[in-house]
Amino acid sequence: MACISELWGVARKNQSSRESESEKSNQERENPFSVLISFVFLLILVFAFKQSMLDANNIPSGSMIPTLKVGDYLFVNKMRYSLRLPYLGTELLRIDDPKRGDIITFIPREETEKNYVKRVIGLPGDRIRIRYIGVCDPDLPLERASNPEYTCSSEYQDGAYQGPDVAFVEYKPNDSGEWQHFTYKELGPDESRTILTDSDSSSVLHPEIVPGYQSDVPVVFEETIEGRKHLIVERFRGITLDHGSICPTFRTTGCVLGEDKYFVMGDNRDDSKDSRYHEVGLIDRGSIQGKALIIYFSIDWRDQICHDYSMSMNGADMGIDGFRLEDFPVEDQIEYCSTMDQYIVRENIWQYLVRTALYRIPRMDVRWSRLGDLLH
Questions:
Q1: What is the mean pLDDT of residues 191-203?
Q2: Is 50 exposed, middle or buried, given 0-12, 13-18 or 19+ CB atoms closer than 10 A?
Q3: Which residues pair with 261 in a beta bridge?
Q4: How many CB atoms lie within 10 A of CB 228?
C-alpha cells in the first residue's frame, strides 16, 4: 500500500508539473506585447508587398471612361516595369519599359500625393502630333457606324449636329520614317449609350438622359494601337487644346519626346487632365509606378450624378431636373441624393462616413459584369 501511495504521489506531482508548464506556455503564447509585435510586423510586410509588388487602386474620376469607370477597383502590377525598394520608392532594377497602349499609373509632378491612371500614347524618341479632325472629315481613318446620331453634310443645316472632333494621334518612332497613326471604328448609338450610362459621369450621358441640358452627343470609338483594341469616347466639336506649353509645333510638324519621356492620354478624350496639359505634361520614366492589371471590383456610387442633381435642385443654373436613368430613376434620386453631395470635394472624413451610411450605400449598384476584366 505504501508503494502504491508513493507512486500515486509521484503521478500527481508529474501531472501538476505538466499543467504548470502548460499554463506557463499559454501565458507566453498570449503575451500581448508579442502579439502586438507580430501584428506590426505583418502590417509592415503587407504594405511592403503593396508598394513594391501588387497595389490596389480605385478610380475616383471619369478621365479613363469607358475603359475605367468611376468606382472601379483594380490591381496594379508594381513589378511590371521596375523593382523598387519598399517605402523609399528607390528603383533597384529596371525590368522593362512601358509599351504604346499600356495603361500605367504614375505620380504627376505637381500632385505628388496622387496616382494618375492614363494610357501611354507616345514613347521616348517619338515625334508625335495631335490634330483635331471632325468625325465627318474624309482624312480621318474611320469605319463609321451605319446609323450615327450626327449629320455629315457640306451644307449648313440649322440644328443639325455634325459630330465631335477626334483627337487624331500621329507619330514617327525614333523620329524617322512616315507618320503612323491609330485607327478608329465607331460604335452604334445604342451600344454607346449602354456602355456609358452607368459611368457615374454626367459629362458622357446622352442628352436624352439629361432633359433640358444642352450638350453634344457622346460618340464611342474602338481605337486600335499597334494591334491592341480599346474604347475611347469623344464628345465636343470645335474645341481644341493649346499645346504650346509642350512645344509650339505640336499640332503641325510635331514634337520629339526626350529620353525617358512618355506622352499619356485618358480614354475620355474631352475630360482628361493628361500630357496635353501643362499641369501634367510629359511623364518621366522614374515617376511611373506600375501597369494596370485587372478590375477586381466595381461599384456605381452615383456620386457625380447626385452631385449634379443636388446642385441643380438647390439653385445652380444647370438645367437638370433629374436624370432619366432606368436603374436609378428620378424618384430614387429624390430619396437618395442629398445636399451633402454638393460638397464632395471638401468634405471631411466624418461627413464622408455619414454620407456613405445614409445615402451612398442605399443607392449604390455593383457592376458585376466588370469583375475580372483584364486591362489592355
A1: 92
A2: middle
A3: 284
A4: 12
**Residue 209: Cβ within 10 Å count:** 18
Reduced to 3 states, what is the DSSP secondary structure of residue 62?
Answer: coil
- State the first-to-last Cα distance of the chain, in angstroms, to the nearest integer: 86
223: enclosing H helix or E strand: strand 219-225
Q: Measured between alpha carbons, how far is 149 from 53 in angstroms, rounded to an integer?
A: 45
C-alpha closest to that of 66 among 247, 173, 176, 191: 191
**Residue 213 burial (CB count, 10 A):** 16
The secondary structure element, H or E, covering residue 289 is strand 288-300
Residue range 206-230: mean pLDDT, rounded: 86
**Contact assessment for residue 363 and residue 295, using Cβ atoms and an 8 Å cutoff:** no
- Residues with Cβ < 8 Å from 44, sequence gap 6 or more? none
Mean pLDDT of the chain: 85
Residue 19 pLDDT more than 60? no
Backbone φ, ψ for residue 196 (5° rounding): -90, -20
Q: Which of 41, 72, 75, 42 is nearest to 59 (CA)?
A: 72
The pLDDT of residue 7 is above 50: no
Handedness of CA 114, 120, 126, 128 (dihedral sign): negative
The Cα–Cα gap between 224 and 181 comes to 9
- Decide if 168 contacts 250 (C-beta within 8 A): no
Half-sphere exposure of 67 (CA within 13 A, CB side): 29
Using DSSP, state whether 67 is helix, strand or coil. coil
CA 67 – CA 265 distance, rounded (Å) = 12
DSSP H/E element including 75: strand 72-77
How big is the chain, counted in residues? 376
Whether residue 150 contacts residue 187, with contact meaning beta carbons closer than 8 Å, is answered with no
What was the pLDDT predicted at 207? Answer: 85
> Are the C-beta atoms of residues 309 and 322 closer than 8 Å to each other?
yes
State whether the Cα torsion 295-300-305-307 is positive or negative: negative
Q: How far apart are CA 238 and CA 128, in angstroms?
A: 22
Cα distance between residue 341 and residue 337, in whole Å: 7
Confidence of residue 152 (pLDDT cuts 50, 70, 90): confident
